[in-house]
Automatic annotation (TrEMBL):
CDD domains: SgaA_N_like
Signal peptide: none
PROSITE patterns assigned to the protein according to its UniProt record, in alphabetical order: VOC
Protein name from the UniProt record: VOC family protein
Segments forming domain VOC: 22-136, 150-265
Taxonomic superkingdom: Bacteria
Ranges that cross the membrane: none
Length: 267
């Protein structure tokens, strides 16, 4: 992660609708959802409620009554990695899915209706990184960001940033702004002048077994304590805590191998 630019705020008092192109949800599909829920409940203090059961059993994670994420059962016929997947808001999932295809991406799931969650699809960009598309239903939940246990930022690690940034700009209307650096290949994606996600090009240093992928960052109050807790709960540490311009960060996995990152914002 180059930085975590998600703003620290809580919108817990009123329903919200995300502008198209804004990351609006993160979802984890696993082989053992019970174990995953136990892990994240202990790590982040999430509570779980039943969610839409299509395309499979699913639970919504709540933080102080606000929906922050979802965990579901990964069906064997869905050839998807065990990974956290960010969903981008869309006013028309079907139209967005067609744009994904016309721009060289693929749609692997949907579009389909997911009960009260609205309409969704899962696709991949031309480099192979998996992402979701979500069209909210009339029932809008409350949003929470910038507090421990909530998603803070989503970042794509890929071979090079410029070409893939053009894909997301065309599909979701993002504005792409390159980082001014001679030795860093990084683009920030913005919606309505607000940074919403990042793209980090790492060239040949990208792990071939992993390939291009999105990483979700979750806010924690104490990074060192959270990393120790991950290990105690059966997860692994891939990158030890280190300082960045926007706080201390670490990359970890849950017991099933799903990667995610933790960020402690500067005080």
């Amino acid at each position: 992660m180059t930085d975590a630019r998600g703003s620290a705020r809580r919108d817990g008092e009123a329903p919200v609708r995300h502008a198209p192109g804004t990351p609006c949800w993160v979802s984890l599909m696993v082989h053992g959802p019970d174990r995953a829920r136990t892990f994240y409940e202990a790590l982040f203090g999430w509570e779980f409620r039943p969610g839409p059961q299509r395309p499979g059993p699913y639970a919504r994670a709540l933080l102080d009554g606000c929906e922050v994420a979802g965990i579901g059962l990964l069906s064997p016929d869905l050839h998807l990695p065990v990974a956290w997947t960010p969903y981008f808001a869309s006013a028309d999932v079907d139209r967005t899915a067609e744009t994904v295809r016309s721009c060289g991406g693929t749609i692997g799931v949907g579009p389909l209706d997911a009960a009260e969650a609205g309409r969704m699809a899962i696709g991949s960009d031309p480099s192979g990184a998996v992402f979701g598309i979500r069209q909210a239903s009339a029932r809008r939940g409350r949003a929470v960001t910038g507090v421990p246990g909530a998603p803070a930022w989503n970042e794509l690690t890929t071979f090079e940033s410029e070409r893939v940034a053009k894909f997301y700009a065309t599909v979701f209307g993002h504005t792409a702004q390159p980082e001014v650096s001679a030795d860093l290949d990084y683009m920030t994606l913005s919606v309505e002048s607000r940074p919403v996600a990042g793209i980090h090009g790492v060239g040949n240093s990208l792990l071939r077994d992993r390939g291009p992928h999105w990483t979700t960052y979750f806010t924690v109050a104490d990074l060192d304590h959270a990393v120790d807790h991950v290990l105690h709960l059966g997860g692994q540490v891939l990158k030890r805590p280190h300082d960045s311009a926007h706080g201390r960060v670490a990359t970890v996995t849950d017991p099933e191998g799903a990667r995610f990152a933790l960020v402690q914002s500067p005080r």
